[in-house]
Amino acid sequence: MKSEIENRFWDHASETMSAGLLRALQLERLRSQTQLAATVPYYKDAFAKAGFSPDNIKTLDDLRRMPITTKADLREQYPLKMLAVSRDKIQRIHGSSGTTGKPTFVAYTPDDMEIWSDLVARFLVAGGLRPEHLVQVAFGYGLFTGGFGLHYGIEKVGASIVPAAAGNTPRQLMLMKDLETDVLICTPSYALNIAESAKAAGIKPDELPLKFAHFGGEPWTEDMRLQIDAELGIMAFNNYGLSEVIGPGVSGECLYRDGMHVQEDHFIVECLAPDTLEPVAPGESGELVFTSLTKQAMPIIRYRTRDIARLYPEPCPCGRVGVRMSRVIGRTDDMLILRGVNVFPSQVEEALLRVEGIAPHYMIEVDRPKQLDEVTVKVEVSPDSFSDKLSVMQEMHDRIDREIQTVTGIRMKVELVKPQTLERFIGKATRVIDHRLERRGKTE
Amino acid sequence: MKLKQLSVFLENKPGQLTIPCKALADADINITTLSLADTHQFGILRLLIREHERAKKVLEEAGCVVNITEVVAIDVPDRPGGLAEVLEVIEAGGINLEYMYAFTYRKRNEALMIFRFENPDAAVELLQNKGFKVVGGEELSRRVDE
Q1: Model pTM?
Q2: CA dihedral of A304, A306, A312, A316, whole degrees rounded to 10
Q3: CA within 20 to 30 Å of A86's CA: A35, A263, A355, B107, which one?
Q4: Res A425: pLDDT
């Protein structure tokens, strides 16, 4: 398959500029981006507290003097207090889920949309997309940046799109076969689901027209890639992004599939030790922190992603200048990514607190026995909430089920257990048992 | 005239019924009768036990969630339509029946029905007025010992 893909560029000049030119461009853009950020009340205060002024940026190292932005900081600016432009300049609003059940909104001006689409186009073209291809987008379309982000990037390249959206796997296969889809876009776990359904329907990999695929939205492993490549008869590419930074398009793989090229002309990436926020040694794993350089609607300064990965600065044979990042190998908080949706254990707690008589003693168990994440929430029955009537207990069970779905947006299996059966924690509770990690084995 | 019934919460996994039964056995407590209600998510074990207070303590010490509710035991005529007659009276009296289960003795050839009513006192009064035999705790013990 690899031989079919040439090393092409969407924006050759930007993607292959010299390192010297790139740093000069970053410095210039960092100045203007921080000046724009300083017009946002939140950043005005944060800069003042940190004793930082956008006017004295001398080198890129001055970035280290700038304040860190966290998800909690963004949440406090709900819904749109992080805007650096007036509302009439906004073309699009997306959102990501957070701990409170309310999304964190991000906004785009028409120029932001242009850049975003270009950045998506870059990794798509690096990973084989050509104008003659038909692309099936099996990402959710909605507040999630994945669906529309990829959609606009594909349009930019000039390829054709089937906006299949996520779900209804038999229909995905039908579309794929009947319309002769070349490229699949979805989460890696959904790709495995599609592969499984194809197998069950007796469809062999070579009967599927797919050539390659671009996956993102959740961490996955090299083992999963090998499996998907073999089962769908494709070449699968990894890409990375998060809505707070821009959405998909922050980084993506080239045909060498050895790390994702960070689009450094639009973002500065740092790799920091999560406890000290000091840079880790080159090549070591740490928390990725991104600073936007060209955003208009919502500039973001030193955003802590909570994603753990490695950066490797060695040049790539493809000729792209951007530093490469490894797969995301972990999180520094307890956020779970379940079927592509961000879920925090505290959201489950919030859901349980809405059900009278339920003590918030719970445990979340995550597994991926086949292709899809399966989540079980174990909830303790208390003597107060226990009834001898089946209907009362069933209603309580169903109520918990509904509340969890309302707060987290995904369906979890609710299991009522006896009191005191769940481990009691001293200090910080570990509410999650993630069996997916054991299944991943040693491969990062 | 009402009986104390113990209910025990059971998780939906193998061996869960053994825990309360073993705990009672180890404490030398005899179960007069029991009924099991379950869904595919969990189960509820209902027990009639003479020493219900001691049994509750024993079960709780074994880690079970237990609650006590009052139920009514009624002699049901052992012939076709016997149960229907009782149910008609209950329905006509506007009394809500939550659930019921049957109970037979070793030596007697008759059935006792255990009823869980929303309002057990009203049910006892109504059924006695209509001539049904409501069996209390002492008599139940006597019958079991026969």
Answers
A1: 0.70
A2: -90
A3: A263
A4: 54
